[in-house]
Design a protein that fits this description.
The chain has 108 residues and is of the alpha+beta class. The protein has a single domain, classed as Nuclear Transport Factor 2, Chain: A (Roll). 33% of the residues lie in helices and 30% in strands. The strands form 2 sheets. Strands 1-2 form a two-stranded antiparallel sheet. Strands 3-4 form a two-stranded antiparallel ribbon. It starts with 7 loop residues before the first helix and ends with a strand. The N terminus is likely disordered.
Length: 108
């Protein structure tokens, strides 16, 4: 189970629906990390990610292209598990979520 948020703004009410939604989103991203279309459906058109190699990929189209290429290589057998460390709401409808990822290499 992911760690509970440590931010005082969210720790006071761990049953907050927003926190539950964030945990569900992170779990869905993890579950669909090798399913290109389902993973991309979780992102906005202007999403920005940092991939396993540390490369920043900006925009849904670029994320699609980078993932498609990676999934055609042995990297498809490298899985990550995300644990939420910290949730901070900068506005009621905007959160910054910090996660620690563990890398599991299932390649031979």
């Amino acid at each position: 189970m992911p760690a509970q948020p440590t931010d005082p703004a969210t720790a006071a009410d761990p049953d907050d629906d927003r926190i539950t939604a964030i945990h569900q989103l992170v779990e869905q991203a993890q579950r669909h990390q090798s399913d290109l279309e389902k993973f991309l459906d979780l992102h906005t058109d202007d999403a920005s990610i940092v991939n396993l190699a540390g490369r920043r990929v900006v925009g849904k189209t670029a994320i699609h292209d980078a993932m498609r290429q990676a999934l055609q290589t042995p990297l498809a057998d490298v899985i990550t598990n995300a644990n939420i460390d910290h949730i901070h709401f900068v506005r009621p409808d905007v959160a910054i979520v910090s996660c620690t990822k563990q890398v599991v290499d299932r390649r031979d």
